Amino acid sequence: MLAHNFRVLARFVAFRLCLIVTLMAGPVVCVRLGVVPDSTLIALPMVAGLFVLIYTVLRLRFATRFFSCKRVLRHYPLTYYSRVAKKEERGKIYGTVFALRVSIRGQHGAPLMRGVDAAGSKRWPAGFDEGGWVAGDLPYGGVVISPTTDAMLFVKPDDWDKLESRRRELGPDRAELARRARMDKGKWPEPRLT
């Protein structure tokens, strides 16, 4: 599953790099070869390439969640939950933030979670109709993995303070495990991409 998500992220970077090189170097090569005349309009694709470069760098800043997911998967076993329900999605500049509930069918009181795709996709991953695999402790956050596509969502409770009493009930051992996985509030990266 990590390899799949890494490949998706690598394809995104490779495509963007090809686009940036084409936009920035293409006009220079065309002028040097004499294919197009030298004019100030040649700079327009270069400006577009610069904006694509800036957007890509800003978007890759949020790719660090992939490494956070890797750390959580190292510390927590996968547990199957029979229900992963998307409640809403909000498009942000660098990605889409999903509101979801992860629960076992028939069980009530699942916290509302916010999550983003670890590989940077802006679409709701396929395969969550059949449930999902969860690594982590939901009152702290974790990783939700599609059973059919291996897409990973990195999740965190929507209202951190509301679940404080539930986290205290979990005990010091689980709090220590969350700290080692860096899911405590101070270190677990926010999934909001604003």
Quick rundown:
By secondary structure, the protein is of the alpha+beta class.
Walk me through this protein's architecture.
With 194 residues, this protein is α+β, with helices and mostly antiparallel strands. Helices cover 41% and strands 22% of the residues. The longest helix is centred in the first third of the chain and has 32 residues, at 2-33. Strand 3 and strand 4 form a beta hairpin. Strands 1-5-6-7-4-3-2 form a seven-stranded antiparallel beta sheet, covered by helices on one side. The chain has helices at 2-33, 43-61, 64-75, 164-170, 172-180; strands spanning 79-81, 83-91, 96-103, 112-117, 132-137, 141-145, 152-157. Helix 1 packs antiparallel against helix 2 (43-61). It contains five helices and seven strands, in the order αααβββββββαα. The mean pLDDT is 85. It has two domains: 2-61; 65-180, no CATH class.
